[in-house]
Design goal:
Rossmann fold, 7-stranded mixed β-sheet, 7 helices, 31% helix, globular
Length: 227
């Protein structure tokens, strides 16, 4: 399957999620929003980890959330950076961006901005953010090396990146790619060693695995920094 077909399958999958069809059974979908239900009532979680907590955000920082979806991690980040900070969410699904903007207004989080765009071509200036976050999104991107290169570009020197994502223990078996399995964070998941290699090759230093799940396809949380 070519890259454009994969992206269209993912976009359609999450457009259905925005319409209330959860996320088609993929990517850690939680209709009850889990522990976030008290903080942001009605905002579903599509993640597979807790990168906001792992990033140890500080007041006044500028944070970029890659694949922000309905905005739950962006909202959590906004609480931590406070009114003096700023959070930018980028997502390629128009319906997700629209709902996230509505919810940001509903919660009175004026320090958040949601932008429509692709992670491989971020609508964000270079060296302009302190922290990059992502939660169960980068596995959906065909060109993961390009995605990490963009994350590196927008970070300031000394900035840090924390991502939670789905990886696999072994390479995917040969055969046709199923667009729904890709959108459900299965076919797009790469072996852990290759995923970490993408981060190193993008230029990041101090790459550390903070949490690792179990199974053939499992969650991984990784921290790194821009020298």
């Amino acid at each position: 399957m070519i890259e454009t077909e994969i992206k269209e399958a993912v976009r359609e999958h999450y457009a259905r999620a925005a319409a209330g069809d959860c996320c088609g059974g993929g990517c850690g979908c939680d209709k009850d929003a889990g522990t976030a239900a008290v903080e942001f009532l009605g905002v579903p979680s599509f993640g597979c980890g807790t990168p906001v907590e792992a990033a140890e955000l500080r007041s006044g920082e500028i944070v970029l959330d890659l694949g922000s979806g309905r905005g739950l991690d962006a909202f959590r980040a906004a609480q931590r950076v406070g009114a003096q900070g700023r959070v930018i969410g980028v997502d390629m699904t128009p319906a997700m961006v629209a709902l996230a903007r509505e919810d940001a207004a509903r919660f009175g989080l004026s320090q958040i901005e949601f932008r429509l765009g692709e992670i491989e071509h971020l609508p964000v200036a270079g060296a302009s953010v302190d922290v990059v976050l992502s939660n169960c999104v980068l596995n959906l991107i065909p060109d993961k090396g390009r995605a990490f290169a963009e994350a590196f570009r927008v970070l300031r020197a000394g900035g840090r990146m924390v991502v939670s994502d789905m990886v696999r223990a072994e390479p995917r078996a040969d055969g046709p790619i199923d667009p729904e399995r890709w959108a459900a964070c299965i076919d797009g998941a790469e072996p852990e060693w290759l995923y970490l290699q993408h981060i190193h090759c993008a230029g990041f230093a101090d790459v550390k695995v903070l949490a690792r799940g179990a199974g053939g396809v499992y969650s991984l949380t990784v921290a790194s920094r821009k020298p």
